[in-house]
Specification:
Elements (H helix, E strand, L loop, with lengths): L2 H7 L5 H9 L4 H10 L8 H20 L5
Length: about 70
């Protein structure tokens, strides 16, 4: 599954937050949005997918630490 499909299938993931964590620049949201839509001939690259995977793995680790109160 590619990043675009993953984000479509999981709308709970906010693209703006993911973009800021991936790129860490002021225009991160626009950068990711342009890559996802193919605007200005920008495309998601392997490096982009690796950055997203790193951020999402950190989220997964945090989720696994979540404990439900009984």
């Amino acid at each position: 599954m590619d990043l675009k499909q993953f984000l479509t299938d999981n709308p709970i993931i906010k693209q703006a937050v993911l973009a800021r964590l991936m790129y860490g620049v002021d225009h991160a949201t626009t950068k990711l949005a342009n890559k996802l839509t193919g605007l200005n001939k920008q495309r998601i690259t392997r490096d982009d997918e690796e950055l997203a995977l790193k951020v999402l793995q950190e989220l997964g680790a945090n989720i696994s630490k979540l404990k439900v109160s009984e």
